[in-house]
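Pipeline run #58 for the internal structure catalog. This entry was flagged by the ingest filter as a single-chain record with no existing model, so it goes straight to prediction. Upstream metadata was stripped on purpose; only the residue string is passed forward. Reviewer on rotation: M.T. Logging verbosity set to normal.
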Amino acid sequence: MKIWHVSDTHGYHDLLSIPKDIDVVIHSGDCSNDRNPYNNEPEVRNFIDWYKSLPIKYKIFVAGNHDTSIEKKLVKEKDFFDSDIIYLEDDYIHIEGLKIHGSPITPNFGNWSFMKSRDKLDRHWERSIEDDVDILVVHGPPKGILDISEDRDGKLEYCGCKALKRHVINRIKPKLMLFGHIHNSDDIINAGTMKLSICDTIFSNGSVVTDRRFGKLTSNGNIFDI
């Protein structure tokens, strides 16, 4: 099965080059950009119209912190399913023998959507993600893996979720872990894949934009055979 992973298109999905012979496309959040959910809604609906048109059998979407109209239920799960798109919000689906779990949750940072405080995330991951997941799709990265960004003082930090990393490495051990949220920034490259020596999971940051340079794409996502 060939899987194409993209994330953080932020309204620029039309600029993507659609690869051939893909069985599953997975978008791990931030299809839109505007913080105001009423302005955000037409952005998400435009994305849905584009996404459903892709000549790919299975289309999976997990929301991100910018997808405010989805959190506010202006765009509903039914809108995705009516467009033949699989929407996952702390839920899973089986596709051709693979168990795929999706979650939009990221650690709190600013006033955005689908966020929880870091001290609540360990319990959230424990309760929501089962052990036998083959592909884990989340919006944000695990700590220390393709997640370098600037804090509010402009200092670089690994800003992913420490609790999520622990659950992935010690308990879930998926074949693939797909996320975005943290883009490329200037000379910092987060988009791409990584594998750790301590586990067999392949980690993928599918973000396609660069901070402060929206309007063109700097990645076209990542492709996997599984």
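catalog note: Helices lie at 37-52, 68-71, 77-81, 121-128, 162-172.
catalog note: The radius of gyration is 16 Å.
status: ready for reviewer M.T.
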